[in-house]
C-alpha cells in the first residue's frame, strides 16, 4: 500500500505529461502543415493568371470590352411558370402583335410597346395610353385652348 501511495502521483504525472507532449507534437505538425499551405498560396500570387482570376472574382474587375453583370439577390428571383404551357413566363418570344411585319418594324414597335406597358404585382401586363395619344383618339374631347370667357368661341 505504501508503494502505491508513493508511486501513484508519479505515474499519474508521467502519463499526464506524456499526453500533453503528444498533444503539443500534434499542434506542431498541424502548424507545419498550415505553414506549408500558406507558402503554397503565397507562391500562387506570383502567377499573373491567378492574380487576374482573383481580381475578376473578388473585385469584379473585367477586361476592356467586357460587360460586368451582377445579380444583387439571386434568392429573391422567383420563376413564374405558365400552367398552360409549362414554360417560364420570361421564356420564349413576347407576343407584341406585329408578327406579320418585317423584323425592323417589329423591333421598332416593340420599343414603342415597351414604353407603354406596366406590369402589376401578379405579373399581368397592363397597357397604359400615353397622355399625348389619349386626346387624339377621342373626338368628344375639347382641344380648344381658349380662356373660357366666351370671347373667342365660335360654336355653330
For this entry, give a set of tags.
Septum formation initiator family protein, FtsL/DivIC, disordered C terminus, 156 residues, mainly alpha, 4 helices
Describe the overall structure.
This protein has 156 residues and is mainly alpha-helical. The chain has 4 helices and 2 strands, in the order H-H-H-E-E-H. Among the domains are: 11-59; 92-134, no CATH class. Strands 1-2 form a two-stranded antiparallel sheet. A hairpin with a 5-residue loop joins strand 1 (117-119) and strand 2. The radius of gyration is 39 Å and the shape is elongated. It starts with a helix and ends in a 19-residue tail after the last helix. Mean pLDDT is 75; it is low at 132-139, 141-145 and 151-156. Pfam families: DivIC. Residues 18-48 form a coiled coil. Residues 124-156 are annotated as: Disordered. This is Septum formation initiator family protein.
On the 0 to 100 scale, the average pLDDT is 75
Order of helices and strands: HHHEEH
- Sheet/helix structural class: mainly alpha
Number of strands: 2
Summarize the amount of helix as a percent range. 40-55%
Low-confidence stretches: 132-139, 141-145, 151-156
Keywords: Coiled coil
Protein name: Septum formation initiator family protein
Region (Disordered): 124-156
Pfam families: DivIC (PF04977)
Amino acid at each position: 500500500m505504501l508503494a502505491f501511495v508513493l508511486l501513484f502521483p508519479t505515474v499519474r504525472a508521467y502519463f499526464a505529461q506524456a499526453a500533453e507532449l503528444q498533444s503539443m507534437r500534434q499542434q506542431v505538425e498541424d502548424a507545419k502543415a498550415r505553414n506549408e499551405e500558406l507558402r503554397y498560396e503565397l507562391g500562387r500570387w506570383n502567377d499573373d493568371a491567378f492574380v487576374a482570376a482573383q481580381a475578376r472574382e473578388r473585385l469584379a474587375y473585367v477586361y476592356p470590352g467586357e460587360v460586368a453583370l451582377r445579380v444583387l439577390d439571386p434568392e429573391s428571383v422567383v420563376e413564374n411558370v405558365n400552367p398552360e404551357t409549362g414554360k417560364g413566363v420570361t421564356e420564349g418570344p413576347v407576343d407584341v402583335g406585329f408578327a406579320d411585319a418585317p423584323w425592323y418594324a417589329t423591333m421598332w414597335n416593340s420599343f414603342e410597346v415597351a414604353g407603354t406597358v406596366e406590369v402589376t404585382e401578379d405579373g399581368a401586363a397592363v397597357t397604359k395610353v400615353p397622355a399625348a395619344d389619349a386626346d387624339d383618339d377621342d373626338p368628344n374631347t375639347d382641344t380648344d385652348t381658349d380662356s373660357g370667357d366666351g370671347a373667342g368661341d365660335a360654336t355653330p
